[in-house]
TrEMBL record:
Protein family according to the UniProt entry: Belongs to the pseudouridine synthase RsuA family.
InterPro entries cross-referenced by the UniProt entry: PsdUridine_s_RsuA/RluB/E/F_cat (IPR042092), PsdUridine_synth_cat_dom_sf (IPR020103), PsdUridine_synth_RsuA/RluA (IPR006145), PsdUridine_synth_RsuA/RluB/E/F (IPR000748), PsdUridine_synth_RsuA/RluB_CS (IPR018496), RsuA_PseudoU_synthase (IPR050343), S4_RNA-bd (IPR002942), S4_RNA-bd_sf (IPR036986)
Organism: Terribacillus aidingensis
GO terms for cellular component: cytosol
NCBIfam families the record matches: pseudouridine synthase
SUPFAM superfamilies, per the entry: Alpha-L RNA-binding motif, Pseudouridine synthase
Keyword annotations: Isomerase, RNA-binding
PANTHER family with a match to the protein in the record: PSEUDOURIDINE SYNTHASE FAMILY PROTEIN-RELATED (PTHR47683), RNA-BINDING S4 DOMAIN-CONTAINING PROTEIN (PTHR47683:SF2)
GO MF entries: RNA binding; rRNA pseudouridine synthase activity
GO BP term, example: enzyme-directed rRNA pseudouridine synthesis
EC number: 5.4.99.-
Protein's UniProt name: Pseudouridine synthase
Keyword ATP-binding in record: no
Amino acid sequence: MDKQAERLQKVIAHSGVTSRRKAETMILEGKVKVNGKVVKELGVKVTSNDSVEVNGIPLEKEKSVYYMLYKPRGVISSVQDEKDRRVVLDLMPEVTERVYPIGRLDYDTSGLLLLTNDGEFANMLMHPSQKIDKVYVAKVKGIPSPEELKQLKRGVMIDGHKCKAVYTKLMSADRKKNTSLVQIILHEGRNRQVRKMMESIQYPVQKLKRERFGFLTLEGLQPGAHRKLTPEEVHRIKKEYKEK
């Protein structure tokens, strides 16, 4: 796999030296060197092969960590929020590394979220060429017909983009309450995609949960809980989803 290039300020921030904003200031002030040369531009990208110095001190690469979180509803998939709402890192107070989410789950969606400080790993999983199953279960108002669910596989237009489900299934239906549970598998991860796709066929989502990401499931985790990925899981992900 090719080494992924990342913005210099992001690399400095992930090393734990300072925040990304302060890193940008230090770059502009000429306090950062890449491979022995002073860099004063914010657009510079580096890989793990490059040597970076901040104030004359070589950057030590932070040990890579990989977590799975069962994100509950009412939590932001971000490391900070300007409206001071709860964010995923509030659920992981003992984690000292500067981890960040791989992709997002919206505020009202619960389920499996991965977090890491390994930029190459995150970029690999979010690369458009990957065909990673993201399995969702949606509680919707109404009971869609098989033909309507097939429409989601054929594709619907969302925000000017044709979105397709890989798989759809009506799991159960409550005719008294006029609600149903629908399983949807996507390869994409656009903003509020499941909700918008279901709305496009007139079945608004009342509750939404991501139950699986690739081969990873939430088994053994309660909402709000997290665990480290095992070395075997990390190795399998890198082997199965190495960048194409």
